[in-house]
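Appendix B, record 7
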Amino acid sequence: MGGYQNKIMCTSFQSSVLDKKGSDCGSKLYYEFLLTDDNYKDFLYRYVKDSNGQLVVLNDDNKSKFIGKIVKMRSPLYCKGDKLCNKCMGDYYYKMGSHNVGLLTTEIGGIILNKSMKSFHDSTIHLKKINIDDYISS
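Structure tokens (predicted):
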């Protein structure tokens, strides 16, 4: 996402606030993704559907039930409430005591921009074994 789009996204959501703890807009839409050991920390304290179809909070205690599987997660992208409900936003912001989550979007936009820049500017050194005889002609 380019800088201009980031700025629009951030200013669009600056007034977003959380609804009360325990709120649920009733959205039936979910964000689906493969949960792995590498990415589960990005989704801690978010509400996911378990094998019984119940919404549960993803945490360190139950992560093993979901890792390696396609997970359906409630998302603020699909929230139907006037305010962002607890089930779509998860518990993270409630734990932080931050209810004006829109004010955090500028920080999130910066994080997204930095991660995308890192993906284009890879400084990893790649080593490869070669046989010198393959390159010398006699």
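Remarks on this record: The longest strand covers residues 31-34. The beta strands are 31-34, 47-49, 55-57, 70-73.
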